[in-house]
Amino acid sequence: MILVTGGAGFIGSNFVLDWLAQSDEPVVNLDKLTYAGNLENLASLQGDARHVFVQGDLGDRVLVDRLLAQHRPRAVLHFAAESHVDRSIHGPEDFIQTNIVGTFRLLEAVRAYWSALPEPEKTAFRFLHVSTDEVYGTLRQDDPPFAETNAYEPNSPYSASKAASDHLVRAWHHTYGLPVLTTNCSNNYGPYHFPEKLIPLMIVNALADKPLPVYGDGMQVRDWLYVKDHCSAIRRVLEAGRLGETYNVGGWNEKPNLDIVHTVCTLLDELRPKADGSSYKAQITHVPDRPGHDRRYAIDARKIERELGWKPAETFETGIRKTVQWYLDHPEWVQHVQNGSYRDWVHKQYGAVAA
């Protein structure tokens, strides 16, 4: 049995689905079901006894204590986080509460549970913390990619809150001996991605004949990681990672945002051509850049390949094609997540061009 926090979100739900597709080991899935937590992501598991869903807050110590005592997991995988940079700029408090205070409370509950485990369960137990490359700050064009030894230089309320959570996890290992592992991943993309993030927003807006809002000149560079590759990396780190270590997980796909948008448009031109024969690229609209926008992220993923033998299975070209096709094949999912609060948020963030 494993316990997953945030398992109804984008990365968490993909992980739960992949885990149960490859293993009969049950999952207890704790998710608060905020705006980005969507049980529809897990609809295929309805009635599956291997998946136990619990709606609740990871900061609820009584609840977490009860789940740990009742299910006795051999590992806790901590995905739950507020993760959208733009939202953190407009409202940072939720990020402090979830990413810092929530992680602290979870660590304390897990520490009490782990301390009371008998051997050999205590030795075998793991706490795996899923984090982000944004804790490292930004890179110049000629800088080498982020390695695990890079100093932390977070530039947004989101990345600062994740950096704080990373430090807490590290401290609980060094002070209390809690058997932890940390992964720092690059930008994920793939199925079930809430359509406020770049790739799904471009797909959804393009199909709706809306403008495709691109911040500034669109030349902000990110390393793109297909979400199912990320899930396989997490499974491998859980299986064989060295205690107390951090593993950077990347896709070896550095691309400017504008190139990503062009690629999405080209695929849509092929897979869902417009009746008039025009290109979706005509809908691209540049909007004012967001405050403190990091210029470049890139991940050096050689450590996880060297130590654990992991590398991504998908290229960007194969992964992005699968992603666009998934959104074309699941219009009901898109429609259901586009409720009033989502539309209000996009309008607030990008202005009239995305309304």
Proper CATH architecture of one domain: 3-Layer(aba) Sandwich
Low-confidence stretches: none
> What's the shape?
globular
Q: For the report, how would you describe the main beta sheet?
A: 7 strands, parallel
In whole angstroms, how far apart are the ends? 44 Å
- What proportion of the residues is helical, as a percent range? 40-55%
Number of helices: 13
Q: Could you give the count of β-strands? A: 12
Biggest sheet strand order reads 3-2-1-4-5-6-10
* Run of helices and strands: EHEEHEHHHEHEEHEEHEEHEHHHH
Estimated radius of gyration = 20 Å
Q: Which CATH class of one domain?
A: Alpha Beta
The helix-and-strand class reads alpha/beta
Average pLDDT score? 93
Strand content: 15-25%
The CATH superfamily of one domain appears as NAD(P)-binding Rossmann-like Domain
CATH topology of one domain: Rossmann fold
SSE map:
Elements: E1 2-5, H1 10-22, E2 27-31, E3 51-55, H2 61-71, E4 75-78, H3 85-90, H4 93-115, H5 121-124, E5 126-132, H6 157-176, E6 180-185, E7 187-189, H7 198-207, E8 212-215, E9 221-226, H8 227-240, E10 246-249, E11 254-256, H9 257-271, E12 284-287, H10 302-308, H11 316-329, H12 331-337, H13 340-350
Parallel strand pairs: 1-2, 1-4, 2-3, 4-5, 5-6, 6-10, 7-9, 8-12
Antiparallel strand pairs: 9-11
Describe the structure.
The protein is α/β, with parallel strands linked by helices. It has a domain at 2-192 and 225-253 and 297-313: NAD(P)-binding Rossmann-like Domain (Rossmann fold, 3-Layer(aba) Sandwich). 44% of the residues lie in helices and 15% in strands. It has 13 helices and twelve strands. The protein has a seven-stranded parallel sheet with strand order 3-2-1-4-5-6-10, with helices on both faces. Helix 7 (198-207) packs parallel to helix 9 and helix 9 (257-271) packs across helix 11. The protein is globular, with a radius of gyration of 20 Å.
